[in-house]
């Protein structure tokens, strides 16, 4: 096992990784920008190296500086967390060149999944089911439109380089295709510098169900079951749960085995997530594979009793997976709500300011709070305005959901506008309790979720 690792991230995920490293007796090196000089992750780590000014481009995204910090401090491995450099193939390659272990998959796997269309080609060859569509090299409007016409509307245009819900556009009928196509390409170009598009059948009421997989360097692969992340706003996750409600054992196994097939098709190692759309008739389709630890990994940890960061460290250190498929079991039900500094009454505009009062619910075996801030800290304009992840567990879905509502009602934050009331309204919405959920949930239940006198 390593004796020292560097964590190339900030906020809650940096703190989360430090906790596990400490448990395993591994020393930690934090990195930080100007805005984070006094932040919790710097405080928790054994050492800290300054990277540069506050904007990520001048600090957390500077791969060479991060690697130099690892070399200087004698860290043997780098954990990239999520976001920033976590899915950057060049960074991963440079780590290899400097003999520093990148705690994640091999460069080839990051590259293979970096483009949505290349990923689809690989999955098609591996017999993993895909949403019907076109993801070819011929990018002429006529060819892509013909594919859309042939499969029938509505369709979804996606930027092959896309991510974070950006560069996607629904087209509802043939007459609107040209306009939608031009707009999607413009957005893709400005967001990703690449306007290559693919087109898919737009499923109108799917669920987003993703499978957590893990592979080691000794040919072992397991799935740690599924997470339902259907509750989304602008294609971004808001509340996640595990396991997915209403899953039969047969479907769980089928999706799990498909996910492992996907991972094996690209020689995967470490933690990965295979995202599927699940249609109401039980058919499921590969969407993409995320080659990193995900924000919502704690719900999987709570239902399996495993520490996924520990698994990542062990696999990166060439150990075997801690458990076999037969040894893994689902126990109870977990939810995660993402607590954000944002104004839900004003188009979810990010909020900034000083957390003048901060009192999370008391942690217990039922309630976990993953955060990177303390009372008095500043939520700045420079980074994602997530304040914390609230994760709850209980023996079944109903009880876990009651825990979530209670914990949300106990969360006290002053100084910064948050989405806590919005999350509470979601958690107590009858349709949510009754499992009447698909990816359009927030839009369809707008009036119930946005009523103001919930608490
Ligand atoms: P990104 O990489 O930007 O996160 P994804 O391909 O993962 O994009 O899709 C994000 C979300 O968009 C999904 O969780 C789902 O809600 C919606 N979505 C994606 N593809 C389709 C589709 N073909 N039909 C309906 N909804 C879709």
From TrEMBL:
Residues 120-317 form the ATP-grasp domain. It catalyses: N(6)-biotinyl-L-lysyl-[protein] + hydrogencarbonate + ATP = N(6)-carboxybiotinyl-L-lysyl-[protein] + ADP + phosphate + H(+). The keyword Nucleotidyltransferase does not apply. GO terms for molecular function: ATP binding; biotin carboxylase activity; metal ion binding. Residues 1-447 form the Biotin carboxylation domain. Its cofactor is biotin. This protein is a component of the acetyl coenzyme A carboxylase complex; first, biotin carboxylase catalyzes the carboxylation of the carrier protein and then the transcarboxylase transfers the carboxyl group to form malonyl-CoA. This is Biotin carboxylase. It comes from Thalassotalea piscium. The lineage of its organism: Bacteria, Pseudomonadati, Pseudomonadota, Gammaproteobacteria, Alteromonadales. The chain holds residues 1 to 455 of 673 of the full protein.
